Structure formats: C-alpha cells, structure tokens
Amino acid sequence: MTTPTIDVHAHVLLPEIEALVAGLPGLAEARVLDARRNGPAALAVNGPMVRERIPRLTDVAVRLAAMDAQGVDVQLVSPSPSHYHYWADEETAEKLYLLANQATAAHCAQAPGRLRGLGLVPLQHPELAVRALEHAVGLGLTGVEISSHAPGRELSDPAYEPFWARAEEAGAILFLHPFGCTLDDRLDRWYLSNTVGQPTENAVALSHLIFSGVLDRHPGLKLIAAHGGGYLPTHLGRSDHAWTTRSDAGAGCAHLPSSYLKRLYFDSLVHDPYVLRELIRVAGADRVLLGSDFPFDMGTEDPVGALRAARLSDADLHAVQGGNAVALLRLT
C-alpha cells in the first residue's frame, strides 16, 4: 500500500467567524494594531492576495482540485490564524471557538477521506482552553491550533497546565502557528512582520515551552511547530550553552534544550533545502512533516517538489512526505 502524501499546514477561511465579531468592541483596536505591525505596503498586498485565494480557502471542490495538482492526498486543515481574535471577552471567545470548531468540522466532513481538521482555543482565557479542546475533539477534529502567545500570557504561563495535561491525555494535535509579532512596528516594512516576525515568534514560544519545563511535565504532547519551528531548531547551540553555564537559564528544564527537539514536530516549510536538511539533522527525520501553508503566498505551491529539492534519502523523504503524519494522525 502506498503511503499518502500528507500536508499538515493548510488553512480554511471561515466567514462566519468574521461576521460574529463584526462591530464588537476591541475589533477596531485589534485591526489598528495589526495595521501598525504590518505597515501600509503589506496591507495593500494582503487584501488582493487573500481575495484571490478565497475559493481555495472556502470551497472544498476547489481545494481538492488544488491538492490533486500538488500531489497531496490528505490535508490537516486549520483555521486562518486571522480568526484567533485573542482580544475577545470570555462570552465572545466561547461563541467564537464553538463556531470555528463546528465550521471547520463541517468543511472537512465534505471530504472525510482527504481532510482532517483542527479547531481553535481562546488562549486569552485559559479557563476555557480545556473545554474548547474537548469540544473540538468531540466533533471529530484532530486537535487545535494555537498562536505563540496571548496578550499578557506566554505559553509557559502556569494557567495553561490543565490544557497541556488534557491535550496530552487526549492525544490531541496542537499546531503552533503564530499570528502577529510583538516587535510591532520595527517590522512594518518589506513584510518583515512575516518574514522575520513569524520565525521569531516560533522561536520565543518554543523556548518558553522548553525552558519552563512544560515538555518535561508533559512528554507526550503532540505539538507541531509551523514554519519549521522558526529560528530555534538551527540556533539552539546558543541555548544549550546558556543552559550549561548559567544557573538562571538552566533552572526550569531538566535536559539540554536541544534534546527537546526530538519531543516536538515541525513542518517542512522553511523555503531553503539546506535549512530543511539541517532541521532533519537536528530534530530527526521522524519529527518533520510536510507543510505548505496552503494556499497563502508565503507558502509553497509545490510542497513535494520542495522536499525533493533537499535531496533527502529515500527513507527520510518517505517519512517526511507522509509516513510520519500517518502515525501521528493515526491514519489507516
């Protein structure tokens, strides 16, 4: 039996989410912040780019045709990170995750053999996180997508401990996908908000999970980091050095920081075959999964071709292209 090609980084746009939050207090302020972080030139490109991709983001038939053209058999579909809305109050946040989970499940149910879905969790309200996760899993979703932080809270915050514990117990997939970088308008030109901001946020979030001991306390977490984990996997030598030489750096986690790479998963979306080879070297070929960021412009239109450009061994290519995801997602 041929192993399917599985893309773990693909998005769905949910217009009903934006209808839910339209006009609510906090939305305008969040949009101002988003505009300041990205800058006017990026916003001028983003609008037309997203509009051109709406059919692929919303229409299952169009999605499947695009997958066929890419040679992708299965997508793990997560809501567009623009739907996080971590500014929302508790009542709105609960409505939002219920709707996002239901809408994503309905989208994937139109092609159950080819689409698996992820829901959302309101990280700004840790007390809702377990309930949101259980709702997603109860709908048949594989897990949930989370950002790199919520306003005023890092992923190392003790308030998230029940969430990590429940995700570990349930075997749920957690897809770590940043949205917005707290370097703010230092990155407001040349799309630095994404090209530098996303890998920076990945590195910060993963460092919080590692150095705080979250991965020690929850070794069974199934966490996939988007964008190859950002800057962290290929620059962990500096973290290892700090852990071994400074008492403050080594106080929170039990092992060398680089050793935790083999407890995490990473998508392959690094846009450089040499970086992909290095990611596989440091994390292990069994910890890297095909990812395309379908269908956005910062993704790849040819995810399998990007893998082949790295000139991996046949075994590693097979693992990354689908073998690892079959095991992780428990596909048969």
TrEMBL record:
Origin species: Streptomyces griseoruber
Protein name listed in UniProt: Amidohydrolase
InterPro entries in the cross-refs: ACMSD, Amidohydro-rel, Metal_Hydrolase
An example Gene Ontology CC term for this record: cytoplasm
Keywords: Hydrolase, Lyase
Limits of the Amidohydrolase-related domain: 6-331
Statement: the UniProt record of this protein carries the keyword GTP-binding: no
Gene3D superfamilies with a match to the protein in the record: Metal-dependent hydrolases (3.20.20.140)
GO biological process: secondary metabolic process
Pfam families per UniProt: Amidohydro_2
Gene Ontology molecular function, alphabetical: carboxy-lyase activity; hydrolase activity
Top-rank taxon: Bacteria
Keyword Hydrolase on entry: yes
